[in-house]
Amino acid sequence: MLFSVTAREAITTVPLTATVTEVDETTARFIGELRSLWRKARENANAAIMQQTFIDITEPLFGSYDRLVPGAPARIVARLNDQLCDAAAQDGILLLDVARASERDGIDAWFDAGRWLQGKLEIAPQAAPLYGDIVARILAAQRGLSKKCLVLDLDNTLWGGVIGDDGLEGIVLGEGSAVGEAHLALQHYAKQLKERGVLLAVCSKNDAGIAEAAFREHPEMVLRRSDIAAFVANWDDKVENLKLIATRLNIGVDSLVFVDDNPVERARVRQSLPMIAVPELPADAALYVRCLADAGYFEAIAFTPEDRHRAEQYAANAERAALLGSAQSVDEFLRGLKMSVLFGPFAAVDHARIVQLINKTNQFNTTTRRYTSEEIANLINLPSALALQFRLLDRIGDNGLVSAMILRPTSDDEGVLEIENWVMSCRVFGRRLEFEAMSIAVEAARQRGVKAFIAEYIATPKNHVISALYPSLGFAAVEGSATRWFLNLADYAVQNSYIVRARATIHAGAAG
Amino acid sequence: MTDEEILTAFTRILRDLLLDDSIVLTMETRRENIPHWDSFNYVNFIVAVEIKFGVRFKVADIESFANVGAIVAETAKILT
């Protein structure tokens, strides 16, 4: 549900002579009314709510001095937007920031006085495609379709020149040269993306040793080798290397954005792997960052602790992979990890992460049902449902909140719970968490007097990895169905997982 | 561009807008003669015409066009 509201009403209610406090009272009342509309919408429709920011349609009154007059129209719009954003954060509303877009494109690209007068169209029709694009990005982010990894070429992308020919001292990078600073700006931007949870990878036609040396030894490099989750430098086809990067990071090829200054490479990747996003970099390196940012590949609707620590977690996984390589057997490796699981019902504090996990996970996702923020919020403290979250820790580190399971009573038998969806982050595949999670779910269900589970596996192009999940956990195929599975809880056999339970906080809830 | 050509283009625009291929505009057609050509779709029609012909009407004109012929005449006037 999309709320699109004009600031005009608030502007006309505030006298020009109003003090800061008076302005705030009016704007707060205005935002308060919006919040009650959001509540009503939530009560009446189980829909995600999107609220548009206020575009500044005001004209200067004093000129530059407007900014010093609390009651000046432009100041009121600014206050409205401040308070709107605070309210949206508190209420978990999706924000559609057309104000930012109109500042960037210029108000004339977004607002046309004639259209407002004729049809009260505050967004000019010529801005409609852009508007639609921004809405689509947010919806895509909500559905987990945003990109996850930025793959960077090196020569003439991350730095100027060709390191293989020019040498470490010969490449153009850093302060003092406009070109060097342009490439540095791209590195800074990539680093910021990394800090918000986007994975970075390198895909370069280069000698690996020479390419890595630049990251370690060049004094002007902003990106360090440790910032790069997958580093591929060789003379092979980039199409194959991009597939390799996706495999190494255990993400889909369609989660990649490929940035390369070479139009031939770009064309080749677009043709062979059309699901990869390939921005058409301009010839001028000064515009690289803008080109990448404009595309909105990494649109997000949350910024969770998992995002903040994603790069570290991938680094920790590299450490685990090394451990696995040196272990005599998988069992020895798993024992050596000293894993523990923290689990409990969906908690309000983890709400944003649960929404993100369920909607971004494609591989270990039993039904690929997506949920709005509101739907997950409703599951918290819903006594009839059993909604479980799992966090996996080991001696290398905290893997974060990596699995969620949603069970609900079936309509015809309250003694049977259906596993409506179950997701697990690819970061913890092969750690036997699915066995421990199922044991936990079975115990919690038994406490409620539940006799059996029904589960469904809906195949997608991406979740083949768990096609045998339910039989491996002891479920039997439901007769006459190719996708439904059944488990009599009395027959459930616990399988060893090497995972200890750090804390058990499952409440019995209402009897099922 | 002749008035007739402009009129034909208008017919095409309105057909696309209202998803109705039976629409035939004449110089005398008024909005109330065409089903669903409400005020909102009138604005949409004007926007489409402005984009198609690269013209810009004055608010006062948009409000006072008596019939399709008046819009055709104003378009032709701006174009010459």
* Number of H- or I-type helical stretches of chain B: 4
Q: What share of the residues of chain A does DSSP label as strand, in percent?
A: 15-25%
The number of E-state strands of chain A comes to 16
Tell me the radius of gyration of chain A.
Answer: 26 Å
- How many H/I helices of chain A? 19
Derived from helix and strand composition plus strand pairing, the structural class of chain A reads alpha/beta
Task: Give the amount of beta strand of chain B, in percent.
Answer: under 5%
Encode the helix/strand succession of chain B as letters. HHHH
Average pLDDT figure of chain B: 94
Mean pLDDT of chain A: 92
Short description:
The complex is a heterodimer of chains A (512) and B (80). By secondary structure, chain A is of the alpha/beta class. Chain A has helices at 8-13, 20-44, 73-91, 98-105, 107-110, 113-119, 128-142, 163-166, 178-195, 208-217, 238-249, 263-272, 288-294, 305-326, 330-337, 351-360, 373-379, 433-447, 469-472, and strands at residues 2-3, 50-52, 94-96, 149-152, 199-205, 230-234, 256-259, 339-345, 364-365, 386-393, 398-409, 416-424, 452-456, 476-477, 484-488, 499-504.
